[in-house]
């Protein structure tokens, strides 16, 4: 059941990411717009995914806002490598393919690869299960 929930949450997060990218392009389409859109999409997806993963995948309960901020920072740090995969794939598709929607296909592929890797990083380093540490 965890796998199914994780896939659904990854899809929800991907949707948030792509919607924020789309609206970012609607607001600004000049120099560097792809990078700006990827940043805002990543931020939106990150926040949504953190909340869903924390509550419904890893069942982590924070004791206070300070602990939550530390968890979010660590969660974000674990996402740096996977974000590079996602951004690299999206930029590659945008650069190599002539279709203006190619960047979105690259984003979906990059995010899919990244989320698979991120699950294992989060499980091991962010939301450490007690069974895993004993």
Description:
The protein has 134 residues and is mainly alpha-helical. It has one domain (2-133). Helix content is 84%, strand content 0%. The protein has five helices and no strands. The chain has helices at 2-27, 33-57, 65-96, 102-126, 130-133. The model has no long low-confidence stretch (mean pLDDT 93).
Shape call: elongated
Please give the radius of gyration in angstroms: 16 Å
End-to-end separation in angstroms reads 24 Å
Could you say how many structural domains there are in total? 1
Helix content: over 70%
Structural class: mainly alpha
Q: For the residues shown, what is the average pLDDT?
A: 93
Main sheet attributes: strand count, strand direction, barrel closure: none
Order of helices and strands: HHHHH
Strand content: under 5%
Q: What's the tally of helices?
A: 5
- Annotation, overall tally of beta strands: 0
Low-confidence regions: none
Briefly characterize the structure.
The protein is mostly helical and 134 residues long. It is 84% helix and 0% strand. It has one domain.
Task: Name some characteristics of this structure.
single chain, 134 residues, mainly alpha, elongated
